[in-house]
Design goal:
The structure is a single chain. The model has no long low-confidence stretch (mean pLDDT 88). The protein is of the alpha+beta class. Strand 1 and strand 2 form a beta hairpin. The radius of gyration is 25 Å and the shape is elongated. The chain starts with 5 loop residues before the first helix and ends in a 5-residue tail after the last helix. Helix 1 packs across helix 4.
């Protein structure tokens, strides 16, 4: 078995990404000659096959280099995760803070993950907290929570989307029982253009558009109202009074009910998914260990 060191493998991975000896040296805090020397040592340990093809103008992976890179990336990623989890286990009890807007979606997977996590790591705790409507990612970015439960899509450069908690939540529109739309069996986005629509505020642009497009399929402008609703009780009151209509998902409508509010299927938007999300540039073994457990439990949702 080749006596290969982890530092050599990590250097290989960085060079395979950069394809530039100078940039690789800069990232790793080494000299360019040290990078070249390490590559030659690694090639010798792995049977003498060149891993890179070098000319005065370009650096590229050889066939052997491409094969090693493809097999090495998941192996090193898995090893890093194992080591971080071991460090978390060895450091004693910890707290993972998860922010959510409500208990309407993904709670089955999330609840089972909390139980499994706290059983696996003695003394560890998952704290659930409510997120503000108008600042959904703010607590995450301020490091007040480690993870958030979010609707998809979410495409923010500083946030990485993790395992899904639900994958097929039906789109519905909540309306008051006396509202003109209340007698319909289902609705289209086209139907909403004639009414005051409350689209949840505080959403990222991509999620806001997925929740309810700003224009109907025929090009009509949807009339969004600037209803700064601070809690679900106030939202239900406005819906019951017929002041607005609210596109959302079936789990939300089922969880937050009012005798004078009904939910009607919205037929021309695809089902909605929700997932865990965290900050991209954070190294937190406890958070990663919890995400691993959620990932294992959510596997059945996507297969």
């Amino acid at each position: 078995m080749p006596d290969v060191e982890m530092r050599e493998l990590r250097l290989f991975l960085v060079l395979a990404e950069e394809l530039h000896f100078g940039r690789t040296a800069g990232r790793l805090g080494l000299t360019t000659s040290r990078v070249s020397q390490t590559v030659r040592v690694l090639e010798r340990k792995l049977g003498g096959q060149p891993l890179f093809r070098r000319t005065s103008r370009v650096v590229e992976l050889t066939e052997a280099g491409r094969a090693l890179y493809a097999e090495l990336v998941p192996a090193v990623t898995g090893l890093d995760r194992v080591l971080r989890t071991a460090a978390f286990r060895g450091s004693g009890p910890g707290v993972v803070r998860v922010g959510l807007l409500n208990a309407a979606s993904g709670v089955d997977v999330l609840s089972r993950a909390v139980e499994r996590f706290e059983a696996a790591y003695a003394g560890a705790t998952v704290q659930l907290s409510t997120m503000p409507f108008g600042d959904r990612l703010g607590p995450l970015r301020r490091r007040e929570v480690d993870l958030v439960v979010t609707r998809l899509p979410l495409d923010q450069p500083d946030v990485v989307v993790g395992p899904v908690l639900s994958v097929a939540d039906q789109r519905v529109v909540m309306v008051g029982r006396t509202h003109p739309l209340a007698g319909r069996a289902d609705l289209s986005v086209e139907d909403l253009a004639d009414h005051d629509v409350r689209r949840p505020y505080g959403l990222s642009p991509e999620l806001a558009e997925a929740t309810c497009p700003a224009r109907t399929p025929s090009g009509r402008q949807v009339r969004f109202v600037d209803a700064m609703v601070d809690d679900n009780a106030e939202l239900l009151y406005l819906l019951a009074r017929g002041r607005l209509v609210h596109p959302t998902v079936a789990p939300f409508a089922e969880h937050f009910q009012h005798p004078d509010v009904i939910a009607i299927p919205l037929r021309d938007l695809p089902p909605s998914a929700c997932a865990l999300a965290g900050l991209r540039d954070v190294d937190d073994p406890g958070r990663d260990a919890f995400v691993d457990i959620v990932d294992a439990l959510s596997h059945d949702l996507t297969t």
